[in-house]
Design a protein that fits this description.
Elements lengths: L10 H11 L5 E5 L5 E6 L2 E3 L2 H10 L14 E11 L10 E5 L6 E6 L2 E13 L2 H9 L8 E9 L4 E16 L11 E13 L4 E4 L4 E6 L10 E9 L26 E8 L1
Parallel strand pairs: 3-4
Antiparallel strand pairs: 1-2, 4-7, 5-6, 6-11, 7-10, 8-9, 9-10, 12-13, 13-14
Length: about 270
C-alpha cells in the first residue's frame, strides 16, 4: 500500500470527542447572601479556539432575540497538535486482530499502531472570579495527574485502548481593557496531553473453517493404509457445548468464529 491510498478509521475524531466529553455537563450554582441556591447553570462547551470566542465577545454578536450577546460562563477546547511518542514505540511487524463486528465469518487485522501525544487546551470563560473557581475546582481533582479514558479505536474488530489524559498546567488571565463599562472576561486555560494510538488500514480475510491434509505413507509391503486423509472442522452441539465429534456437531458452516467450539478430526484411511 502506498501513501495516499484511501482509508479512514476516524481515530483522531474519536480522541477529540472523548476529550470533550470529559467536560460536557459541568454545572455551577449561585447563592444569595443567606446561602440559598438561586440559580443553577450548565456550562456550555464547544470546540473553538480562544481567539475565536473572544472575537465574538468583542463584536457583541446577536445570537438570537433572547440572547443579545454571547453568554458566560462557558467553555471551549481545541486540539493544538500531535507529537510522536518515542517512549511507546512498538514493533511495526506486530498485528492486532479480531473477528469482524459485522460479519462473524470475516477476520480483520491491522498492523501495530503508531504512538502519538495529542496536545489539547481547555478554556473557561467567566464574568466573575467565583464562577471560574467553581468550574476549575470540579476539574482539577480528577487528574492526579492522569485520568484514564477508554476509546474503541477500531470498532470493526472491537479493539479498545486506554488513553491517559494528563493535566500539565493551569493558568488564568483577565481580558479587562478600557473603562469600567467595557466588557471583560476572566479566562482560565488548562493544558492537557492525551496519549493516542493511530492505526493504518484494516485488512479483511475469510475465516477458514475446514482444513484437509492428505498424507502418503511409503511402504515396502502392501499391509496397512498408504493414504490418510485428515479433516479438521469446528465442533459444536446444538445446545452450544463444544464437541470433538463431527457427526454429533451442527454443520460447521453454521458455527461462528466467536463461538466456544471444539476441534473435530475425521481420519479416512485408504
Amino acid at each position: 500500500m502506498s501513501i495516499g491510498s484511501s482509508y479512514y478509521n476516524g481515530i483522531l475524531r474519536k480522541y477529540v470527542i472523548a476529550f470533550g466529553s470529559l467536560f460536557d455537563g459541568i454545572q455551577i450554582t449561585r447563592e444569595n447572601s443567606s446561602g440559598t441556591t438561586i440559580q443553577s447553570i450548565t456550562v456550555p462547551l464547544a470546540y473553538a479556539a480562544k481567539d475565536k470566542v473572544m472575537a465574538r465577545v468583542d463584536q457583541n454578536p446577536v445570537l438570537d432575540n433572547q440572547n443579545p450577546a454571547i453568554t458566560f460562563p462557558r467553555m471551549s477546547f481545541e486540539m493544538l497538535g500531535l507529537r510522536y511518542d518515542t517512549e511507546r514505540k512498538v514493533s511495526s511487524s506486530i498485528k492486532v486482530s479480531g473477528i469482524s463486528a459485522t460479519d462473524v465469518n470475516k477476520f480483520r487485522a491491522a498492523y501495530s499502531p503508531v504512538p502519538y501525544i495529542i496536545d489539547f487546551q481547555l478554556y473557561v470563560y467567566v464574568r466573575n472570579a467565583e464562577d471560574g473557581l467553581k468550574i476549575v475546582e470540579q476539574i482539577i481533582p480528577y487528574f492526579k495527574p492522569d485520568y484514564g479514558v477508554t476509546i474503541k479505536v477500531l470498532p470493526s474488530i472491537g479493539y479498545k485502548i486506554d488513553s491517559p489524559v494528563t493535566l500539565t498546567s493551569v493558568t488564568s488571565s483577565d481580558s479587562y481593557e478600557g473603562d469600567f463599562m467595557t466588557r471583560k472576561a476572566l479566562i482560565w486555560t488548562l493544558d492537557f496531553t492525551m496519549r493516542a494510538m493511530l492505526f493504518g488500514p484494516v485488512s479483511s480475510t475469510a475465516i477458514i473453517k475446514e482444513a484437509t491434509s492428505n498424507l502418503f505413507i511409503a511402504k515396502t509391503d502392501q499391509t496397512g493404509p498408504t493414504n490418510i486423509k485428515i479433516t479438521l472442522t469446528p465442533g459444536l452441539l446444538a445446545n452450544g457445548s463444544p464437541t470433538t465429534n463431527s457427526s454429533a456437531s451442527i454443520a460447521y458452516t453454521s458455527i461462528s468464529a466467536n463461538s466456544t467450539y471444539g476441534i473435530a478430526s475425521d481420519i479416512v484411511e485408504n
